[in-house]
Design goal:
Helix content is 75%, strand content 0%. The chain has 459 residues and is mainly alpha-helical. Helix 6 crosses helix 13 and helix 17 packs antiparallel against helix 19 (432-455). The longest helix has 34 residues, at 89-122. It is globular and about 65 Å long. The N and C termini lie far apart (49 Å). Bound molecules: tryptophan (TRP). Tryptophan is lined by residues 23-24, 26-29, 102, 234-235, 237, 240, 242, 328, 331-332.
């Protein structure tokens, strides 16, 4: 084994599935996908999204799987080992930096989720259920403002969130990432099902279901298409080296194509379940659907608190959101950690400490009340929105184009197909590989470029 390759591997197919799914599942499933789907034509949008997953998401994921497993290396080292890879090494560096960018704001939200989980446990939202709607709304937003505006607690929760992730990563691949995701993914599914069952038993459940699923093709706009692509990248944790890093821990008999399909479709399923857990309750209490922090930290407490045992349900909900955020953050931090330990020969513990220290020191600026409420901006955006925008709208599509071009034009086709078919033992006489190669060569780069240009307002 090469000295700077990864030595530890996931121990089974199931472990591979849960770890990869753990990365895909995250805040995106809860505060983004359901709302964006509802606003952009329900089932009509889901069809477009699935097309993106098939034509672009799965091929790019397989491209990353190829890079990681073939070389057994982190996102930067991998390019050194591949033919023609040196010219593309900066993709790894971009991934290194961008993983931090996402962690800066993701850890802020993770911290808020943690603090809301404890608030729910303590019963802080109980009175929301008994007040008239207007007063309850005012109270919900004042709890929100107080929580985010406090000069100490948001930073403390963010710190705790990062510390949890760091401790898991220090335990290593098998004892850390594998053990935690294998335990938490099934728990998350059970928790979400509890919320779905409760939500669907409400009298106005149909309104929520309609919002989420009613196919309305007239709502599909250019914007919806840009949204579907951005969501596909963010949801599947693509283009930042996460999948390169994780697949370097896959063994040679892992079924790459099977894993990519299973993860992509389970992820969509969980997003829809999240929508079914949220919107029936939101509509039941006459609230407007929304996305982002407003949905998670205002509408949801307001709506759920009005149900009998609302506090218990809210605790369940924030716990599952916290789990999703944690396993996603684990995968993000693992990108720089694996780079430092393999490329710079630091031990795993020091790499984790250095990387989490960076997230903690810079991450504070996204969560600090001054940047949330105080009007401190960068290019007219709050730090939080800036990191979100730059990563999802610019860097990810850009790296997505580069990865597909690299695999489509610079990697010998035989090598790629051998890797994704496990040296021809899987997908015998398959028609899938040519389609995946075609997509990486033509469809993905052209589609992503067009959308990148459109979203930048260049055409
Ligand atoms: N997929 C996660 C979500 O939906 C976020 C995430 C984790 C991510 N790792 C990533 C996004 C890598 C982009 C790249 O919330």
């Amino acid at each position: 084994m090469n000295h700077n390759g990864s030595k530890e591997k996931f121990s089974s197919t199931l472990a591979v599935f849960f770890a990869t799914l753990g990365s895909a599942l995250g805040l995106g499933n809860i505060w983004k996908f359901p709302y964006v789907t509802g606003e952009n034509g329900g089932a009509a949008f889901i069809i477009v999204y699935l097309l993106f997953i098939l034509l672009m998401g799965i091929p790019v994921m397989l491209g990353e799987f190829f890079i990681g497993r073939h070389t057994n290396c982190n996102a930067i080292g991998a390019f050194n080992k591949l033919k023609n890879g040196r010219h593309f090494k900066f993709i790894g560096w971009l991934g290194f930096i961008t993983a931090f960018f996402i962690l800066f704001f993701y850890s802020a939200v993770g911290g808020w989720v943690l603090s809301y989980f404890f608030k729910a446990l303590k019963g802080d939202f109980a009175s929301l259920g008994s007040l008239p709607v207007e007063e309850a709304t005012t109270l919900a937003s004042s709890i929100f403002n107080e929580t985010m505006g406090h000069s100490f607690y948001p930073m403390m929760w963010q710190f705790i969130m990062i510390a949890i992730v760091a401790i898991i990563l220090m335990a290593g691949i098998k004892k850390g990432i594998e053990k935690v995701t294998k335990t938490l993914m099934p728990v998350l599914l059970v928790l979400i099902l509890i919320c779905v069952i409760r939500a669907l038993s409400l009298p106005k459940a149909m309104e929520g279901i309609n919002f989420l699923l009613y196919p309305d093709f007239s709502k599909l706009t250019t914007d919806s298409i840009v949204n579907a692509m951005g969501l596909a990248f963010f949801k599947l944790s693509l283009a930042l080296g996460v999948m390169i890093t994780y697949s370097s821990y896959f063994s040679k008999d892992t079924n790459l194509v099977g894993t990519s399909f299973k993860v992509a479709f389970s992820d969509v399923l969980i997003s829809m379940l999240a929508g079914l857990a949220i919107f029936p309750v939101v509509f039941q209490f006459g609230l407007a659907p929304s996305e982002g922090p407003g949905l998670l930290f205002q509408s949801i407490p307001l709506a759920f608190a009005s149900l009998p045992f609302g506090n218990v349900l809210l605790s369940v909900f924030f716990l599952l959101t916290g789990i999703a955020a944690t396993t996603a953050m684990i995968s993000l931090l693992e990108v720089p950690v694996s780079i430092l330990s393999q490329e710079f020969h630091l031990n795993r513990k020091s790499s984790v400490i250095i990387c989490s220290a960076i997230v903690i020191t810079v991450g504070v600026i996204t969560v600090h009340p001054e940047s949330i409420f105080g009007g401190t901006t960068i290019f007219g955006l709050s730090f939080f929105d800036f990191f979100d925008y730059v990563t999802a709208k610019l860097i990810m599509p850009f790296c997505g184009i580069l990865i597909s071009i690299f695999i489509g034009y610079f990697v010998p086709r035989k090598d790629f197909i051998n890797e994704i078919t496990n040296e021809g033992t899987l997908l015998k006489n398959n028609t899938l590989s040519p389609i995946i190669c075609f997509s990486l060569k033509f469809i993905a780069p052209i589609l992503i470029s067009l959308i990148l240009i459109t979203s930048l307002g260049l055409i």
